[in-house]
């Protein structure tokens, strides 16, 4: 049974007040959606519907909800054939054609990279630090210039994804607080990006929004080792990264400490506890945070709260992670078995199992 939506509930969410603090509207400039699985969904026949139930282009539906940026991950050579260079080039054209800005999320892996795993691409296995620096530079420059040649120059890039203890393990793993190898890899990506496009912003992304001590350890470490970056990117999921008060502290602290703007590169919240495929969902709780229910209204309430908190603390934007990843058959999480592996995130999407957007969700302007 699908959750029902009421006018009263809509107003309760839609009228959440903005922060009392005055803000420069230009400073709140990244209202993002990671739609890395969208291309596969569309190819499989998924249809998307706006708040009135009318079929429409999903990028246009997201824009109507306030989004202005898309984030696309890129894997070097994934078995699935998706999120590789060719597919990212195609999807970048589709997004830019709808007037969206573009963030490219380099994983530097053939599969998922996150705090628990940073697998070196098979083609780079066994390479020493000097060779990996060249690999990162050449690959980053090639992807960026390929995007540039087709008129879709990335507005931002991430050099690594959730690299809490480094990337391209084992060479880029931070052992005994030695950030030297990681800093060299980060700078290879930074230099390649700027050689392609000086205006493209470079992010260093960790999932450390919930731990100020760990954030200091990491960003102090890469700073001391000479790493260069433009924007500090953090993942924040309330289920794992603590309270909004703590998020306020972390954003304000790292903004001041490193003198760089902060963006929340990932966040999400469930709109239901129901499961629409054979794979159990990651988030099962009926009220994961602060008593906010896993309902369409609750999803919108939590997303609005994260945005309001981030903006009041001085951040420049928030990205919702995978709002279009519905449970359509064949768009699974496993790069080795995309056809059959299933989706454990569909109850966190902002589109329901029928492809209709949650009418309460807004990217705040």
UniProtKB/TrEMBL annotation:
Pfam assignment, any one: Glyco_hydro_53
Keywords assigned: Glycosidase, Hydrolase, Signal
Q: Which GO terms describe its biological process?
A: pectin catabolic process
Coiled-coil residues are: none
Q: What is its EC number?
A: 3.2.1.89
Q: Which SUPFAM superfamilies match?
A: (Trans)glycosidases
Q: Does the keyword Cytoplasm apply?
A: no
Q: Which reaction does it catalyse?
A: The enzyme specifically hydrolyzes (1->4)-beta-D-galactosidic linkages in type I arabinogalactans
Listed transmembrane segments? none
InterPro entries noted in UniProt: GH, Glyco_hydro_53
Q: Which residues form the signal peptide?
A: 1-22
- Keyword Nucleotide-binding tagged: no
Q: State a single Gene Ontology molecular function.
A: glucosidase activity
Q: What family does this chain come from, according to its entry? A: Belongs to the glycosyl hydrolase 53 family.
Recorded protein name is Arabinogalactan endo-beta-1,4-galactanase
Native source species: Actinoplanes lobatus
């Amino acid at each position: 049974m699908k959750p029902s939506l009421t006018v009263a509930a809509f107003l309760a969410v839609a009228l959440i007040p903005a922060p009392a603090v005055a803000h420069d509207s230009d400073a709140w400039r990244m209202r993002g959606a990671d739609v890395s699985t969208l291309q596969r969904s569309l190819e499989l026949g998924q249809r998307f519907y706006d708040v009135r139930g009318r079929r429409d282009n999903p990028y246009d539906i997201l824009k109507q909800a306030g989004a202005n940026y898309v984030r696309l991950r890129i894997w070097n050579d994934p078995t699935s054939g998706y999120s590789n260079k060719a597919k990212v080039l195609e999807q970048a054209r589709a997004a830019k054609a709808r007037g969206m800005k573009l963030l490219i999320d380099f994983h530097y892996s053939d599969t998922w990279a996150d705090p628990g795993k940073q697998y070196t691409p098979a083609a780079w296995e066994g390479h020493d630090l000097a060779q990996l620096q060249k690999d990162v530079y050449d690959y980053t420059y090639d992807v960026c210039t390929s995007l540039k040649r087709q008129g879709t120059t990335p507005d931002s890039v991430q050099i690594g994804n959730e690299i809490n203890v480094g990337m391209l393990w084992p060479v880029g793993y931070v052992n005994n607080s030695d950030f030297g190898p990681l800093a060299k890899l980060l700078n290879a990506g930074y230099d390649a990006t700027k050689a392609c496009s000086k205006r493209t912003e470079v992010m260093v992304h960790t999932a450390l929004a919930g731990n100020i001590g760990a954030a200091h350890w990491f960003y102090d470490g890469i700073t001391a080792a000479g790493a260069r970056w433009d924007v500090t990117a953090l993942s924040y999921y309330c289920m794992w990264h603590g309270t909004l008060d703590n998020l306020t502290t972390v954003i304000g602290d790292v903004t001041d400490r490193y003198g760089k703007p902060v963006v929340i590169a990932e966040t999400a919240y469930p709109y239901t506890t129901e499961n629409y495929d054979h794979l159990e969902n990651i988030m099962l709780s009926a009220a994961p945070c602060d008593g906010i229910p896993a309902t369409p209204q609750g999803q919108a309430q939590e997303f609005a709260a994260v945005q309001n908190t981030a903006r009041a603390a001085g951040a420049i934007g928030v990205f919702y992670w995978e709002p279009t990843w519905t449970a359509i058959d064949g768009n699974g999480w496993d790069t080795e078995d995309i056809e059959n592996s299933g989706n454990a995130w569909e109850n966190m999407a902002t589109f329901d199992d029928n492809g209709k957007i949650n009418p309460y969700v807004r990217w705040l302007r």
